[in-house]
Description:
Distance between the termini: 22 Å
Order of helices and strands: EHHEHHEHHEEE
CATH architecture: 3-Layer(aba) Sandwich
CATH topology: Rossmann fold
CATH class: Alpha Beta
Oligomer: single chain
Structural class: alpha/beta
Radius of gyration: 14 Å
Number of domains: 1
Largest sheet: 6 strands, mixed
CATH superfamily: 5'-nuclease
Shape: globular
Amino acid sequence: MPKGFLDTNVLVYQLDKRDQEKRDRCREIVRDLVSRNDAVVSTQVLQEFYMVCTTRLKLKPVFVKGLVHGFENMEVVTISAELIKEAIDASVQNDLSFWDALIVVAAEAARCRYLYTEDLNDGQIIRNVRIQNPFK
């Protein structure tokens, strides 16, 4: 089965009570990938998840830390100096923000077929990774 990289927004929407449709869709995607051991995140995603949950969603840090601990059941790509250099190249070559490019190269490094995010163009293929907007 193909691996899927989960961007921060997909993980955060699982907890966001403001949009039940998005919350349910993201929970479905995560549950499916985790059940097949095909879910991938990066250390960047874990950091962003913590910050968004504790600032925007106003969740307790200790609660969010527990959730981050649970993500260790997924494959976690460590952002290295080499991936940062790759992201700079991908950013320039594909006209992406550095942060989006870092997500793409982390997905590529893990050999993911799909990147689930609402931040890039649905169906676009960047560095052999197909962008899947979970809400399209």
